[in-house]
Amino acid sequence: FFFCCWILFGVQMFICNQEHYGYLPVPLNTKQTLEEEVESFSHTFTEALIDFKLEISRYLHIASKPKDTMAFNQVYLINLKHREDRRDRMLHSLEVLGIDVTLTDAVDGKALNSTQLRALGIEMLPGYKDPYADRVLTKGEIGCFLSHYNIWKKVVELQQQQVLVLEDDVRFEPSFKSRLNTILEDVKQSGLLWDLIYVGRKRLHIKHPEHWVEGVKNLVIPDYSYWTLGYALSLQGAKTLLEAQPLSKMLPVDEFLPAMFNKHPKEEYMSHFKQRNLKAFSVQPLLLFPSHYTGEPGYFSDTETSTIWDDETVATDWDRHHIRGDRSRGDKNLTIYCTIQNTDESGDFL
């Protein structure tokens, strides 16, 4: 582009790093193939979708790209119903990447108060406090946990051998699909037994090196980590997480997972979970990152901005739902509903 502007036409080019105007594909070298060029452009397209809504011209007909679930039985995408912007962006991105996904309704924690949560058998882990905000769980964190928990239950109910779980605020690294497929094939060939593999995470103990997994490229044994942007989960992994009975001692899901593979820095939290033998690994380099970081334009997190656990008096749609249910069925058994919707439409579970 610079060559065309300056050398051929004498037009000087200036770089502005204060405004975001769009994206350019990374130039390929002479040895790269057409397939690599397609992957490069696909990545550029998914990056642009984070900031811009790109619509196909109604005058063009583009054939649908073949899609599959890679090496997984199913790929789950967690999304709140009223967050259509995130859902549309993720579905478009996954379409570009050729990944077949199952949309899963997230639990809106804001639709429940603490009395209702206890009626569902949900209790906060004794003594838990957020390490940065010095607070108890927020309703957004509760909804996030229940959203993942419902998928773990479904994996066990359907006896799915391995699945991929994605949240709706991620950005994909270049060649995401082919690189993840390669790692999964290496894991299979090595005979490595695994329960959970982080595809995206926030590593916290960066001063301590993590150990590479022998015989598998681009896989490490993770230390204490945050975020559940995306992870592969095996059937045995889902069983292990459910057997810990986390609803009766809830903490944020990204604090629960390190406790289950015995890498949480607070022993008093881990002591509530007797079997901390989750076989956890992480891809390295990571293949998923957040679409936005704190302070960036477009960043919003309901897990951090929602109200805290202790809210006894707010009437919600949960009450009306169960009053109607009890009258019509006489059913006193309580379950966790993914489709609960709050009248407050200001945010989502992330």
TrEMBL record:
CDD domains from the UniProt entry: Glyco_transf_25
Keyword field: Signal
GO molecular function: procollagen galactosyltransferase activity
Domain Glycosyl transferase family: 73-256
UniProt signal peptide: 1-18
UniProt xrefs under InterPro entries: Collagen_mod_GT25, Glyco_trans_25
Pfam families per record: Glyco_transf_25
Regions that span the bilayer: none
Protein name: Procollagen galactosyltransferase 2-like
The organism of origin for this protein: Sinocyclocheilus anshuiensis
